[in-house]
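During the no-cost extension, the postdoctoral fellow (Dr. R.K.) reprocessed legacy sequence entries with the updated structure-token encoder. One reprocessed record is reproduced below for audit purposes.
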Amino acid sequence: MAPELFDGYVDERSEVYSVGILLYQLLTGCLPFDGPGDWKICLQHQETQPLAPSFLNPSLPRSVERVILGALEKDPRRRYQTVEDLLYAFQKALDAPTFFEHISWQATCQKLRDRLSPETPDWQPVDALATPTRTRGPS
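Re-encoded structure tokens follow.
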């Protein structure tokens, strides 16, 4: 229940809040607000910030979490203004690369090599290195 409903005000942003609740539940397996009774849950909708979805589902990308929390803003002016805006942002968040996809391992290694002294040998895979044999000294 969108917080503004308690003040008798409703518009499309109230629907955005409801879709945010659905997304939260679908992606975490839990409702953002729960309690011993309906009145307690209603108060939470009005006054309490939901627990970060990634706390319940650590695999959830931060970009998706930001969209969900944006849909659950208490002030309707701070929410997505239409359900279409929300769904567009959600799709964009799903398509957003993760932090590690931005890192090129080869480029990072090349930058490190460039900073090393010229005498430093090139990197070789472990299996390409000859295993030194031990020789025993005089007996």
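The chain has one domain: 3-100. The longest helix spans residues 12-28. The remaining legacy entries will be reprocessed before the final report is submitted.
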